[in-house]
Design goal:
Elements: H1 2-35, E1 55-63, E2 70-79, E3 82-86, H2 90-94, E4 101-104, E5 109-112, E6 114-119, H3 127-133, E7 136-144, H4 146-157, E8 163-172, H5 176-186, E9 189-190, H6 194-207, E10 211-214, H7 220-233, E11 237-239, H8 246-250, E12 257-258, H9 262-272, H10 280-300, E13 304-306, H11 309-320, H12 322-328, H13 336-340, H14 359-362, H15 365-391, E14 396-397, H16 411-422, H17 427-433, H18 436-442, E15 457-460, E16 474-479, E17 482-485, H19 486-503
Parallel strand pairs: 1-4, 1-5, 6-7, 7-8, 8-9, 8-10, 10-11, 12-13, 13-14
Antiparallel strand pairs: 1-2, 2-3, 5-15, 15-16, 16-17
Helix pairs in contact: 3-19, 6-7, 9-10, 10-15, 11-12, 11-15, 11-16, 16-17
């Protein structure tokens, strides 16, 4: 009898364990795809029809190639996706087989299409419309998957959207079960041997990726092997400054970009011995003392830096005053899955926000004061470092870390540009960081208004050199010479709102 019961128990276990595993796997996958925004209806972008063919913009104020001045009363001819001529002779216009569309640029300002140099597309292709509607004609995704390569191919074949530079997911050096779990739940790549490194680099090149993203948690041996293999393959390395490397190791590494200013200030904190809220002034003095020397070294080694300053500035508010912040951002346009989060992953909303402090901490006035001082110091250090980067002519690019908590795709770049000016950049320098600088880094003919460059342009109603917030005054967007007027841009935004509202599980009226 006992043997019979044992057999039944074993038979039941054999059936139950695989079923339980399958159910668990399916549930976790659903939670992860929901958090990435994959369950929001995908908008058919073919419904938006830009004006195509030759286009002549007349009598417009045009941003000079160096980005410093607006040139008045200019004409620009767009043809075959390129800037064909600036101030073309009349006979050239007349020679066109079909008369070009004439756009009156009187009292308007033409700038290059904007570039957000640090975004996360997640599983949210509708964000591509948000970028375009906000004048962003190129994005750099800093955690890409093969799906994005397919999206880019569709865009380059004629589907509307910004062009996409695609860096890999972060590369770690974990192994075994820990590596498998990390890769599954955290979208990380893990390599732990020289053979795996070479295989990874080859596969990324073969799959069409543009760069390799470095994690903070990669060991020194794998880091150097990865950079050597990437250099041999002609693939740039971007991302974090690993804790195993530090600033001294960075100078001899060959890494081509740091993805956040805070990567530098975190390294300086390590060198300082770790700052505490009661050593804030000493830490800031240390950053001030080291900042120009570090910036000069970055310039010497030709290491670019991307900003993501607005996000850092928002942390104090996300921790202590989240609701007022959510009322200020374009929250309705962010993918509901990403905003709401899931059981397994936090989102943006109160009580379930990635950065919000625990109720226990918020209930302790002394703990709140210590935390505020810590994060205010953290941001002050980033501002000091940003000024040093700017003063020492480091290649500096505006990036937002879009789809991180409170960072709304498209809209957030305008917030970032404002933060850059508040941190000490001129309006022209801030604009340069979102146009010519990333164009230069990507070695792409974008980011300047010059003959032969891509006709990726934004027509504004107000001058951004007088007020950087005027980048929001978008009248029309030109993507490879095709024009989206204000009505079409508004239609894109309205469609995003429609599908987002259908996908919500939680109301957000309290944040309007």
């Amino acid at each position: 009898m006992r043997l019979s019961l044992l057999k039944k128990w074993l038979f039941g276990s054999v059936l139950f364990l695989p079923l339980a595993s399958l159910i668990t796997y399916t549930w976790v996958e659903y939670q992860m795809t929901q958090r990435a925004g994959a369950h929001t209806q995908i908008i058919e972008r073919e419904q938006f029809s830009p004006t195509s063919g030759p286009i002549l913009i007349e009598n417009v104020n045009l941003l000079s190639a160096d980005g410093l001045t607006m040139l008045p009363d200019q004409s620009i001819l767009l043809e075959n996706g390129k800037i064909a001529h600036i101030n073309p002779p009349q006979e050239r216009v007349d020679s066109l087989l079909n008369n070009p569309l004439i756009v009156d640029g009187s009292n308007k300002y033409l700038i290059p299409g904007l570039v957000d140099s640090h975004v996360h597309l997640e599983r949210s292709p509708n964000d591509l419309l948000l970028y375009l509607a906000n004048g962003i004609t190129y994005i750099r995704d800093m955690g890409g998957v093969p799906e994005y390569v397919a999206w880019r191919k569709q865009i380059r074949e004629d589907l509307i959207g910004p062009d996409i530079f695609i860096a890999s997911e972060k590369v770690n050096s974990l192994s075994g079960i820990e590596a498998l779990f990390n890769s599954w739940t955290r979208t990380r790549i893990n390599v732990s041997t020289h053979e795996q490194v070479n295989k990874l680099v080859k596969s990324l090149v073969d799959d069409g990726f543009d760069a390799i993203k470095i994690s903070s948690f990669i060991n020194e041996e794998i880091y150097h092997q990865l950079l050597d293999s990437a250099k041999a393959a002609g693939l740039p390395t971007v991302g974090h400054l690993p804790y195993s490397i530090g600033l001294n190791g960075l100078w001899h590494s060959g890494q081509t970009e740091l993805a956040h200013v805070e990567e530098i200030t975190k390294a300086l904190s390590e060198d300082f011995g770790g700052y505490h809220h009661d050593r804030a002034e000493q830490y800031l003095s240390y950053v001030e003392m080291r900042s120009n020397r570090v910036a000069r070294k970055l310039k010497e080694k030709q290491i670019a830096v991307t900003s993501s300053i607005w996000l850092m500035e928002s942390l104090t508010r996300q921790k202590f005053a989240l609701t007022p912040l959510l009322k200020e951002i374009a929250l309705p346009y962010a993918n509901p899955g990403i905003v709401e989060g899931t059981v397994l992953a936090k989102g943006w909303l109160p009580g379930h926000n990635s950065y919000q402090l625990s109720q226990e901490t918020l209930g302790d006035p002394q703990a709140v004061e210590r935390s505020k001082r810590f994060w205010q110091t953290y941001v002050s250090a980033i501002h000091i470092m940003t000024q040093a980067l700017n003063n020492n002519d480091v290649l500096f690019m505006a990036g937002t870390d879009a789809n991180t908590a409170a960072v709304v795709p498209g809209f957030s770049l305008h917030d970032e540009l404002n933060s850059l000016t508040q941190a000490g950049l001129s309006n022209a320098q801030s604009l340069y960081s979102a146009t010519a600088a990333p164009g230069e880094w990507m070695r792409s003919n974008t980011g300047k208004i010059k003959s032969g460059y891509r006709a990726d342009l934004v027509l504004l109603d107000s001058n951004p050199l007088l007020d950087i917030n005027n980048t929001r005054s978008i009248n029309a967007v030109f993507r490879e010479g095709r024009m989206f007027d204000r009505a079409q841009l508004d239609a894109m935004l309205a469609e995003v709102l429609r599908v987002n509202d259908k996908a919500r599980h939680q109301g957000i009226n309290q944040f309007n």
